[in-house]
Amino acid sequence: MKEVNRKDYIDRLDRKRGNRLVKIVTGLRRCGKSYLLFTLFRRHLLEQGVDAGHIIALSLDDIENSHLLNPKELYHYVLQQVKDNQTHYVLLDEIQLVDGFEAVLNGFLHRENLDVYVTGSNSRFLSTDIITEFRGRGDELRLTPFRFVDICTLSDQRPEDLLIQYYRFGGMPQVWMKDDFKEREQYLKTLFDQVYLSDIIGRYHLRGVEELGTVTDVLASSVGSLTNVTRLKDTFKSVCKSNISHNTIRSYIDYLKDSFLISEAQRYDIKGRQYIGAQQKFYFTDLGLRNARLQFRQQEEGHLMENMIYNELLYRGFSVDVGIVPVAQLNEKQKVERKQYEVDFVINSGSRRYYVQSAYEMKNEEKRQQETQSFGHISDAFKRVIVQNDAVLPWHDDQGVLTISLTDFLLHDDVLDW
């Protein structure tokens, strides 16, 4: 089986070497954190000339290391492996198994010749509040499931054929180690129910297990659609005959976000240059997990494509919002009519901004006009881009709007500047 080298992440870790912070690899469980650190990064260090004796690597879930789950034992063991004043790289997997691990890691930071890297894969360590445990002494690296460009390195199949599978199975690494599609589906279903939701239930001592599942299902069904807590509450009341509170629903959403299962995109008024908090969109970090939660029954490619683009934009370092353009127009009766046009994504990175539309089908000029209508009401000069599912050569229309295929978008990091 071919290997995804995750070179981009290795480069990021390499740039963090020696920064006097604890490097914390976070992300979804089973997305490859341990492999990144213990196989790929360790190999990189050796290739860079680091002596193997200066790499202290410990898998704390290994029974042979069970005595090191005592914080003092772990601390003293690592220090005993330090041979000289040269830099020693400390790689610790499943650090959350050590009670009081924060104090241990902070202790390592006082040693000038220790460079510390950790991963963890239970719900506590996966929580987004992990960085605060070190009071500014942690440096997070967020690992994602395989991107589409990674999938293409694993197989000799055409990108167009792999894209169909990526829509359905997402990018969890173990999925792509299985050739049988039924095995992939079962793996993802088990992973969602027995790992992710179980982690959340255990961490927060939840009693409303069914309610958490229902919130998850509703969010999975509404990917790419505007929603809010009030609408979810109404759904519970009408469909589930439940009077679950507004605060409880908000808490469940936060739990899913903290476990990196979902992300939330805010609405942004492009003309008014302000955020509108009434409604949001929620996207899943991995499409395969989203599909598994719904038993692979809801395959709305347009919404899944939007989710795919959103994840890729986040990976590339953009802040991503859902844009609206409020417009006042005269209707046929010459009366002022107020409308809101949507821009799928308003993305920013430093001084760069782009407006991006996701168009699953754009087979005729009428459909194209629908997709570009919102662009015509934006007065600034930032670039407008349409990403369409169908194969198309990149081209610019008379208004400067760039149209590209989804495959090109996923395979080329610089595609927005073509």
Give a written overview of the molecule.
There is one protein chain. The protein is 39% helix and 22% strand. It has 15 helices and 13 strands. It is α/β, with parallel strands linked by helices and 418 residues long. It is globular and about 85 Å long. The relative contact order is 0.09. The strands form 2 sheets. An 8-stranded mixed sheet has the order 7-6-8-9-10-11-13-12. It starts with 6 loop residues before the first helix and ends in a 7-residue tail after the last helix. The mean pLDDT is 90.
Number of strands: 13
Structural class per helix/strand content?
alpha/beta
Strand sequence of the main sheet, in spatial order? 7-6-8-9-10-11-13-12
Helix content: 25-40%
Question: Any idea what the shape is?
Answer: globular
Largest sheet: 8 strands, mixed
How do the SSEs run, as a string of H and E? HEHEHEHEHEHHHHHHEEHHEEEHEEEH
| Cα Rg | 24 Å
Average pLDDT, all residues: 90
* Count, helices: 15
Strand percent estimate:
15-25%
Record the SSE blueprint.
Elements: H1 7-15, E1 22-27, H2 33-47, E2 55-59, H3 71-80, E3 88-93, H4 101-109, E4 114-119, H5 123-126, E5 138-143, H6 148-154, H7 159-169, H8 181-204, H9 209-221, H10 229-240, H11 246-258, E6 262-269, E7 274-284, H12 287-293, H13 301-315, E8 319-330, E9 336-349, E10 352-359, H14 365-372, E11 383-388, E12 395-396, E13 402-405, H15 406-411
Parallel strand pairs: 1-4, 1-5, 2-3, 3-4, 6-8, 10-11, 11-13
Antiparallel strand pairs: 6-7, 8-9, 9-10, 12-13
